[in-house]
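Question thread 4412

I'm putting together a teaching handout and wanted feedback from people who do this every day. The idea is simple: show students a protein as raw sequence, then show them the structure tokens that encode its fold, then repeat with a second protein so they can compare. Below is the first pair exactly as I plan to print it.
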Amino acid sequence: MSAANRGVVYKGPGEVAVESIAYPELALGHRKCDHGVILKVVTTNICGSDQHMVRGRTTAPSGLVLGHEITGVVIEAGRDVEFIKPGDLVSVPFNIACGRCRNCKEGRTGICLNVNPSRPGAAYGYVDMGGWVGGQTEYVMVPYADFNLLKFPDADQAMEKIKDLTLLSDIFPTGFHGCVTAGVGPGSTVYIAGAGPVGLAAAVSAQLLGAACVIVGDMIEERLAQARSFGCETLDLTLEGDMADRIEAILGEREVDAFVDCVGFEAHACGCNHGKEAPATVLNSAMSLTRAGGQIGIPGLYVTEDPGAADEAAKHGALSMRFGLGWAKSHSFHTGQCPVMQYHRPLMQAILFGKVNIADAVNVKMITLDEAPKGYADFDGGAAKKFVIDPHGSVAA
């Protein structure tokens, strides 16, 4: 087996490159990782969360190997791996979880206590998330394999739907989690803030959960058109006008039952000020537009350190929120990483049995590993696409 490997590497603000990197080993620092596997990567996706780092909006160091959305074939398994075998085609949750700590045993795998010495929770190829090597690569190591990995029951069937199944590693469960934590159910009216890939995945998830009306707001017409392509109502947030008035024109009511923030800390103001960054604007809109007693799901990313923020408070994650309004309306807020393992198996079934076409909804665009830097640039420019890297030409073949 060749010991060569290549990956997408963060070089500095606005720059990524495809470079030769170390071939993965079944090791954690200086000790063996007998519970891990090495994957030949079949698909690995570019995520909006990656873009925060690439734009220089985090403390990510130069040289970080990117990528936390991974699907691959097992080519080597550690001595202690019992149930995952070489040849298995698997989805990798972006959360790295030990399966042994209190939080993992409670199903809260996004905040595992043992995989990151700095804070609860870890992810592949991400700043402050444990130093794990990312998976926008040809080969990658995955620890705690028996616990973490979702094996597809039939590899040939899975490859036929790989453009959908690749989204199980993050954005489909994340969008679904946003809707679940916002209380979306049969007959709900839902507002989704943001029509990027996670926002579109949340919109599809709301429909899957039985929502009566899903409204998606964004500032990019191409992304709004993508939301309309599968039956969503849309709001162009570059236009002036009171949002409650515009929601009333759609629903006959000025508030929604459920609100999902799929934008996060790089949000911009609406209307005539839409070019100006306003990091708390989505959260404040959520409290204004959600009915009393409603729920607000926040899968959008918020960080503790944002060196590129417009004001000093926001540089340390301190945002100017109208929290008293949310308190007065008895809102509930749910934040944090999606615990992917709570959702990836049932969402896999929904894909395999044809209940959802998530790849069409988020407009998957396959690219080669060498095309990754252009994919990052196009995505940053607002392309209404979900870029999925095919490092070995497995999907093209």
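The second pair follows. I'd like the answer to focus on this one:
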Amino acid sequence: MTTEFHGRMSRRALLQVCAGLLLTTALPAGAVRAAPSTGYRITATPARARLAGLARPETDVWTYNGTVAGSLVRLRQGVPARLVVKNRLSQETTVHWHGIRLPNEMDGVPGLTQPPIKPGESFVYEFTPPDAGTFWYHPHSNSLEQLGRGLAGAVIVEEREAVAVDRDLLWFLADWRLTEGGGITARFGNRMEAAMSGRVGNTVTLNGRVSEAEAVRAGERVRLRLVNASLARVMALRFDGHRPVIVAIDGQPCDPHEPAAGRILLGPAMRVDLMIDMQGEPGRRYGVIDDFYDGLSYRLTELAYEEGPPLRAHPLAASLDLPRNPLPEPDLATTERHELTLQGGMMSGMMMGGGGMQGGGMMHGMMGMGGGPAWSINGLSMTGDGHAGMAPALTFQRGRSIMLTMRNETAWWHPMHFHGHSMRVLSRNGVAVPHRQWQDTLLMAPKDVVEVAFVADNPGDWMLHCHVLDHQMSGMMTVLRVDGSN
């Protein structure tokens, strides 16, 4: 099997992983529904949704408040939030508030930070979001199946001062593996997929529906919030006829810049905020294309311009800069240095054996081709979703500046998510990363070496794992401890 690693995966590689899958594009997407601004109650419950258009059957899904995507949670920066989560599933669950820097006991990792929410029970999450931006929420219990069946929703933490745009839009993106009859293909945790690219679906939705077109108006400035809630699919989005500007990554503002080669690279669990001045012609349509997988590009949707005169003759003069969040700046001169090495998977020359493994919540079928874990970090494999008593790989004293060198020694892509913190991305393969980028989910290409830095200011035991959830479940997970004692 041959694979290209310059922002694309080869056609042959993907077809071998997901033989027979077809990408679907048709019919408009449904609107994202927002919950009330106060007193959030979120219920995990089964429901039915028409994901692939009116001509296709409905799908049995698991949802938050009965909708795909789940209820949009809108919070205010610096304002306390209280969210009551009720479990009406037939299995335990939790909620992880992805990317939000919150207290450890609110992080949603079963056993490690909270007891799981049993069927029929509730859990109250309380925290004050310090950062404005685009975040999301999803389970951290049986996460491969629960997220794969639809449990996910967006969190928007609003800035203290309004941002100068005409519209603020959310595109909550996910892919699904559907049968011809509209059902979700079972058998989560395929061993071969777990050791390769993970469970890539055959149907891509925008705000819970396959999208034919999204309406825009000439002359308007749009803030477009992109969220990739897929289990494994990496996206590279190209906006034909437009010049989007990246203004935030993973909820954290950066220096505004146009994406390299005009493509927005979006790994699973990542978020990117764009500013787009709609300068197309009224009445015309412009494609939004995902061409990450070589030879398997498809149209995600189209920007459909309304008829009529432009909103304004020239782009809005307001600055594209977003107000910065109160992230502590690491002191690079005094950083404590550590390395994390990602290993394992097919084509790497190393499939994990039975040693070097911490179990816990391990799903049947989630091990590598030889029966052991498929992946490791620094030679140790943690499988499942998290559990009590997970020993930390590294321990940091609270307040210390930390530099991590992360090495991907595998032949596959890994979006590495660090709970409870955001990381300043310093360099990639020896080249400085521009635009002051902070991320909580770092997409690493095969053989990448990336340096990041952060201040270990949030005490507790925090997960660091690959957000290709097959990879997490089969070993690519660890714990980093921030010691809060004096």
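Top answer:
Good format. For the second protein you could add a caption like this: Confidence is low (pLDDT under 50) at residues 1-37, 350-369. Helices lie at 11-17, 143-148, 191-194, 469-473.
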